[in-house]
Amino acid sequence: MPEPVPLRGLRFGILGALEVFRDGEPCAPTAPLQRALLTLLLLHANEPLPVSRIVDGLWDNRPPRSAVAALQMYVSAVRRILTPNWAGSGPGRQHPILLTRPFGYVIRVGNDQLDVHRFRSLAAEGRRQLSEGRCAEGGELFRRALAVWRGPALFDVGRSDAIGRHAVRLETERLALLQERIGVDLCQGRSLELVGELEELCARYPLRESFHQQRMLALYLSGSRAEALGAYQSARRTMVDEAGIEPGPGLRALQRAILTGSAAPSLHCSAIRCATCLARSDAHRPQTGRGGEMTGCRASHGHPADLGRATGGQGDGVGPAKVNRQSRARR
């Protein structure tokens, strides 16, 4: 656990442009290498970062001979920016935020001071809610987590290889949570309102098959079976033209399920369901709370993500026409 942070007025943001606020006023460094240094430290917040890794990260493994001396100057400059009234180093006088450690440095921040910590904390709580069957609450926490983002991570910081790799990893985390949020929305019966968003996502990330799966299911559950099948053909053309590959098993299984009305294999269609609904092995027995009340997606929406039931597979014989009537009734 990080030590208590005495300067609560500092706030940092890396999920978008690099941001630093001191008592509500922006104070981010402007010099490129100072910005890159602060970024590297924030990416490893509360974790001592060796001088060798910082140097490699700032100069892409091609440091000048004066790199260590230059780094010490950048550290001093960033410290002055973060705490203008700091009296300077001396015996027993560590900087309250950017500390010197054996062989390196560490920036000390609380969970509420760095936006990526807030994002991950909200995402984790959302997944916990889903695991307990509270899908609506989990979906709302996912929305709050995604709202922390202000744009592409670190888009205004000079991209060394190290910072670039971290930016890609952060974007991967965001897309994974976005996929989970859409899965919850599908299970909550919001298929029609998702169609436009998923069309944009498929255009922006044409080789990400999970978004194509979710788009197909959203169209199908909105009563547009032909368009859902057309979305598969469009996805297939894109993958063949841009990557020279056929769609993966998930897309093919979903296409067959829409064509034949058979149950979609959960192994390959996990991307289109929320975690709670996917975990239920009995697709026909509602989950109940302690008092016998239904919980989770199926409680209020009949579990529309169960494509086996929605397409008239094994079970109660609910077919596309009934699903379409239910979708129109919800609208």
Written account of the structure:
The chain is mainly α. It folds into 2 domains: 10-107, Arc Repressor Mutant, subunit A (Orthogonal Bundle); 191-331, no CATH class. The protein is built from 14 helices and 6 strands. It has helices at 32-43, 51-59, 67-82, 115-131, 135-147, 161-187, 191-204, 209-221, 225-243, 249-260, 275-279, 298-301, 307-310, 320-330; strands at residues 10-13, 19-22, 25-26, 49-50, 98-101, 104-107. The strands form 2 sheets. It has a 3-stranded antiparallel sheet with strand order 1-2-3, with no helix packed on it. A hairpin with a 2-residue loop joins strand 2 (19-22) and strand 3. Helix 6 (161-187) runs parallel beside helix 8, helix 8 packs antiparallel against helix 9 and helix 9 (225-243) packs antiparallel against helix 10. It comes from Micromonospora carbonacea. This is AfsR/SARP family transcriptional regulator. One of its GO terms (biological process) is regulation of DNA-templated transcription. Residues 3-109 bind DNA.
Mean pLDDT: 81
Strand element count = 6
Strand order of the largest sheet: 1-2-3
If you compute it from the alpha carbons, what radius of gyration comes out, rounded to the nearest whole angstrom? 25 Å
Beta-strand content bin? 5-15%
The shape, in one word, is: elongated
Question: Uncertain spans, ≥5 residues at pLDDT below 50?
Answer: 1-6, 264-272, 281-296, 298-306, 308-331
Number of helices: 14
Number of domains: 2
- Helix proportion: 40-55%
Q: Please report the distance between the alpha carbons of the first and last residues.
A: 48 Å
What's the main sheet like?
A: 3 strands, antiparallel
- State the secondary-structure class: mainly alpha
Topology as a string of helices (H) and strands (E):
EEEHEHHEEHHHHHHHHHHH
